[in-house]
Amino acid sequence: MTDKHNYLEEHLKPLTPRLAMEEAARCLLCYDAPCSASCPADTDPGKFIRSLRFRNVKGAVETIREANILGGVCARVCPYEKLCEEACSRTDIDKPIEIGRLQRYATDYERTEGMQVLEAPEATKEKVAVVGSGPAGLATAAKLAQEGYKVTVFESNEKAGGVLTYGIVPTRLPQDIVDHEVKYVENLGVEFKFNTKVGEDVTFDELKKEGYEAYVIAIGLQQPKTLNVPGVDLDGVTNALDFLAAAKPNDGKVAIGNDVVVMGGGDVAMDCASTAKLLGAKNVTVLYRRTPEEMPAYKDEVCYVRDLGVHFDFTFTPDEFVGKDGKLTAVKGKGFYSEENYIQLKADTAIFAIGQVAEDTKKIADLKISLDGKNVIQADDETYETNLPNVFAVGDVVNGGDTVVEAVAEGKVVAKTVDKYLTSLRKEGVK
Prior knowledge:
3 domains, 16 helices, single chain, FAD/NAD(P)-binding domain
């Protein structure tokens, strides 16, 4: 590990008050701000930056939090460079406003000052069960609580957050930020039940008997993708979900070898590579099957990983894991574009970071819920209704894998759908 970086600290430093005000002052105050139109969660950067420009930090916080219950999280992990910052009018003059860092400044101020912008009305409406406490589940639960529903979130793990807690490294998203956002949701009146797997520890039939009127499935993608190549069962071959889920809750206190190969080219692969390097691996290599230009990871994260000393080998895909006495010793790769090309990398740890797939969704309960060929729930693109009248689905288990800010946006939409559904039953006197 270098003395320049720490696994438990954010690598991107916050803006000071002076720098935040200077950055906000660069805003052109567009009448019909294109940055705001480009935010999936309707966080309205144009409005909150205007507040910051005039030193109204509280007003900025109110704008952010009223639109995005995970404003502090999204300030750190949202792909701004492809959304609001890419749309920023300032781009054609010099460079876009650093919207993400300004949002972080505002939400950090909120947390430091102990502000609580949102308040939930008395919970007088029906009981709703949300299955899963990832970003989509949290956004759904918060919005329903604000509408007066009695919401319970069922989580199979011991902590809330889903991928936020178990899949994003603290150098990008410290756990105390996640915990603060979860507490915000809890303060709205949402109840959490941990270590409870719906379909095993409790069934939908049992929840119905307890008075739940609607169910929202937001379990994300639980299973890792791997490749069926020789040696995949060797000790030392693992996947990103298991690797990151072991490291973050234990503050990085996990065993890591000297030679690590990460297979993949997305943000999760970068998280695995940086984690391995920061936890003491001497040699970390990212093996990606395509070219650097085709790598989907965000450029800032790639630059950070390179700064740590991580090496990249492009246009190769794993072909065989070599071992001795049941333990991994090397990764063999073949050319993705020309199978005549080969590479062999010394390795005692190899990490698949090539995506996730859904678990057997029907195990959640004995539901006749419609799935596609990849076990992803089929739900309406606009309302997130499934083929079952009181069951809704949202987030990665529907879209196959998307960003945190998209999950927040979808959670807000499905909450409106559930509200409309239960309101119609209430008016009709149907229970």
